[in-house]
Amino acid sequence: MRFADRIDAAQQLARALQGWRGRHPLVLAIPRGALPMGRVLAERLQGELDVVLVRKLRSPFSPEYAIGAIDELGWAYIAPYAHAAGADDAYIEREKREQLQVLRERRARYTPQRAAVDPAGRVVIVVDDGLATGATMLAALHAVRAHRPELLVCAVPVASQDAIELVRPHADQVVCLFTPPDFQAVGQFYRTFGQVDDEEAIALLRAAGQDAPPPP
């Protein structure tokens, strides 16, 4: 066990990111689990909170296992082991379409009255609650990089060593507090690791000053 919960993890991560305090960084959380963390980081670093929308592409035999990830513009990372995990080309295309639809629905719910905050020319910190395969973070970094940030930081409390090596070339800086050799799943390093639902995600954006409407 390393963290009591996501808030504890975010507080520890904020200390490691103090160098960016005062630069008004844009903190982009990967929904939904990272949103409570993103709010803490934005407050501690005197920054701005928004979301970067990406989705895991699920293995056909183990939905929690990522065979890749996709951003909301349709760019996808496909892991080299995807076919060995049972995902043929037809399955991958179906999964991409399904997850793109989820992203469209989530964008409509999270930021219906505005465009995403523009990362161009800014210090951008992309945060997640942990990296197992690294696929989702890689897609998020790719999506943000396309907008030409001044500096792109990947920030996570815990990750597998393989995931860190996957994402490292795609960020200007990687801040990871813990890369255990016995990594099996992100949740094993949290005492409390409950699900974050859409209603909580929307409430967190509203509390941070974004204009998502209250849940129906």
Word description of this protein:
With 216 residues, this protein is of the alpha/beta class. It is 33% helix and 19% strand. It has helices at 6-16, 35-44, 89-110, 135-145, 161-167, 198-207, and strands at 26-29, 48-51, 54-58, 66-71, 76-78, 123-127, 151-158, 173-178. Helix 1 packs parallel to helix 2 (35-44). It comes from Ramlibacter lithotrophicus. Residues 15-176 form the Phosphoribosyltransferase domain.
In short:
This protein is an alpha/beta fold.
List keywords for this structure.
216 residues, alpha/beta, Rossmann fold, 3-stranded antiparallel sheet, 6 helices, globular, transferase, glycosyltransferase
**Mean of pLDDT:** 93
Using the coordinates above, name the CATH class: Alpha Beta
Number of strands: 8
Q: Strand order, biggest sheet? A: 2-1-6-7-8
Give the quaternary arrangement of the chains: single chain
Query: What structural category do the secondary elements indicate?
Result: alpha/beta
Uncertain residue ranges: 210-216
CATH architectural group: 3-Layer(aba) Sandwich
Tally of DSSP helical segments:
6
What Rg do the Cα atoms give?
16 Å
The H/E string reads HEHEEEEHEHEHEH
| Beta-strand residue fraction | 15-25%
CATH topology type = Rossmann fold
**How would a crystallographer describe the biggest sheet?**
5 strands, parallel
Q: State the domain count.
A: 1
Distance between the termini: 37 Å
Global shape = globular
Helix fraction?
25-40%
